[in-house]
């Protein structure tokens, strides 16, 4: 008989992150008057290639039995978010400004944290909308699109899907490798369109002519991307 206690382990690691018991790493993050001291555990941080290299090659400072890092060009609040992810794999972009999401992605890149998949699965809308507007992240943008095309539920089953900005959704639907049939695409577009127009009833039978015109206008840019002949064959 086998047991799976992985969630309990994750919860314990998150608890360790917050209570800092037995920490042996001090990280000074921030700049000017906003420098703060963060505490961590070397046995956890070594899961990051950056920290592992520091510990292995002995180039990190030590004082009073503690490893000392200085990340003076990084917001302590954002660095703490990344540290929490290293501990328990949890990250939430919901309450962050897009500029902060971008900074977190760069922090993760600097620390060689190769967990793009987890970032995307936990925050698909925030990731896509942030990366879309930054040409320097073209590789990450392509990775996100390819991953969602391969596994559409990451985005389309997200409770935040309907908040996705139109240009980002259009970029996704322009691809030929999206693994959704046309009926599913149509249904999701309708769901998305209704949220963009909250005054329109969710019950199609109650739509007025004006409601139809509004939805048609919302759909307009997506119509050329639809393969209506496939919808016809799928319904037969």
Automatic annotation (TrEMBL):
Pfam family name, one: BTB
PROSITE patterns documented for this protein: BTB
Ranges for domain BTB: 23-95
Transmembrane segments: none
PANTHER family named among the record's database cross-references: BTB DOMAIN-CONTAINING PROTEIN-RELATED, HL07962P-RELATED
Entry protein name: BTB/POZ protein
Organism encoding this protein: Rhizophagus clarus
């Amino acid at each position: 008989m086998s047991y799976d206690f992985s969630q309990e382990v994750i919860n314990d690691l998150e608890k360790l992150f917050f209570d800092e018991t037995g920490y042996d790493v001090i990280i000074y993050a921030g700049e000017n008057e906003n420098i703060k001291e963060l505490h961590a555990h070397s046995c956890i941080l070594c899961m990051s290639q950056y920290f592992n290299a520091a510990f292995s090659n002995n180039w990190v400072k030590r004082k009073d039995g503690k490893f000392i890092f200085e990340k003076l060009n990084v917001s302590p609040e954002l660095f703490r978010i990344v540290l929490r992810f290293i501990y328990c794999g949890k990250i939430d972009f919901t309450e962050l400004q897009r500029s902060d999401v971008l900074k977190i992605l760069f922090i993760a890149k600097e620390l060689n944290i190769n967990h793009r998949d987890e970032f995307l699965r936990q925050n698909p809308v925030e990731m896509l909308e942030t990366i879309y507007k930054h040409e320097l992240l073209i590789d990450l943008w392509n990775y996100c699109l390819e991953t969602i095309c391969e596994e559409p539920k990451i985005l389309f089953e997200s409770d935040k899907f309907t908040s996705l900005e139109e240009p980002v959704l259009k970029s996704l639907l322009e691809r030929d490798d999206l693994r959704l049939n046309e009926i599913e695409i149509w249904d999701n577009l309708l769901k998305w369109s209704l949220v963009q127009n909250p005054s329109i009833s969710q019950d199609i039978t109650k739509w007025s002519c004006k409601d139809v015109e509004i939805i048609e206008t919302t759909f307009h840019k997506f119509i050329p991307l639809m393969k209506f002949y496939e919808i016809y064959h799928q319904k037969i």
